[in-house]
Amino acid sequence: MPVDTLFQPLALKRGPAMKNRFMLAPLTNQQSHPDGRLSDEEHRWLTMRATGGFAVTMTAAAHVQAVGQGFAGQIGAFGDEHLAGLTRLADTIRAEGSISSLQLHHAGNRSPAELVGTPVCPSDDPETGARGLTLAEVEQVRDDFVAAAQRADRAGFDGVEVHGAHGYILAQFLSPEINRRDDRYGGSLENRARIVFEIVDGIRATCRPDFQIGVRLSPERFGLKLLEIRDVAGRLLSDGKIDFLDMSLWDAAKEPHEDEHKGRSLMSFFTDLPRGDVRLGAAGKIMSAADAAAAIDAGCDFVVIGRAAILRHDFPKRVAADPAYTSPPTPVSAQHLLDEGLSPLFVDYMRNWAGFVEPKAA
């Protein structure tokens, strides 16, 4: 497929159209203040990506409850004290010609105890020390996702993405291994997925009519079952209450992990679902112009760019200029990443990714 296809505009059901097919992935960066307020460093990192040509600039995961914090330096959306920074960020992204989206997140049993005290989970989890939520607390988690979306709306964001992937709290509800509840949020897939659909319904009912809603799902690991996540994805697409579905696949070209589903691409389990007016994108090792074009050719409407956007803030512009563009090989120098808008703190975080940053000099 020609790379030119990546630069065709893409209308969304609500709100502004994407000017091209590139969405910035929500990327952990640990750059904001301990209380969740936006830092200048995180503002610079994100707005450089907006300047670099991304049609949608997605924030890192923003926690909707203090007890849902997943990592140090996480941007927050759980209090009105975050509004000033969020408004500044939305304004700057808009000024750079990009759609702004705030990713809404709760880490659940993946919250570090040193940050939150005792983490919470759909059910008691001895492995992590997380305690199971009461029914009232589940409803409060749901309502706090919706409240954070309302906050994003007030701040001027074009929309939000609900983080239901990577083993965080909504994925924990979806997991039959982790979620052992016996009330309306546990048991059947319909019950385990209930909180996701209630959050979407709540956001749609309370935010402005053209407010965009995305959902991120991942179909593997953390006790998730591929065909169950396919069913959840299918319902999200057919309901038409969201504007885009972001499938995080770790590798957009891989086969499923489950042996019984091998022989076709993991992505194909989602690209063959009827989607109506809802747009479908995928993330996972899309590092070149050819990778991005291949994902569109395989049936995606847009691509979600993570590592390649860390390596080059202007990945879309580089693809537009060079149909053979590929990301720089890793490891890269710390200075390279500093030049691309990462703070020293973010560069240190990236050292946790094997082979991504050159070792420090002895």
Describe this structure in words.
50% of the residues are buried. The longest helix is centred in the middle third of the chain and has 21 residues, at 135-155. Strand 9 (279-283), helix 10 and strand 10 form a beta-alpha-beta unit. Helix 1 runs parallel beside helix 2, helix 2 crosses helix 4 (135-155) and helix 4 runs parallel beside helix 7 (194-206). The chain has two domains: 3-327, Alpha-Beta Barrel (TIM Barrel), CATH 3.20.20.70; 333-362, no CATH class. The strands form two sheets. Strands 1-10-9-8-7-6-3-2 form an eight-stranded parallel beta sheet. It has a two-stranded parallel sheet with strand order 4-5. By secondary structure, the protein is an alpha/beta fold. The protein has 14 helices and ten strands. The model has no long low-confidence stretch (mean pLDDT 97). It has helices at residues 40-51, 83-95, 113-116, 135-155, 169-174, 189-192, 194-206, 226-239, 268-271, 289-297, 307-311, 315-321, 334-339, 344-350, and strands at 22-24, 56-63, 99-105, 120-121, 131-132, 159-164, 212-217, 244-248, 279-283, 302-305.
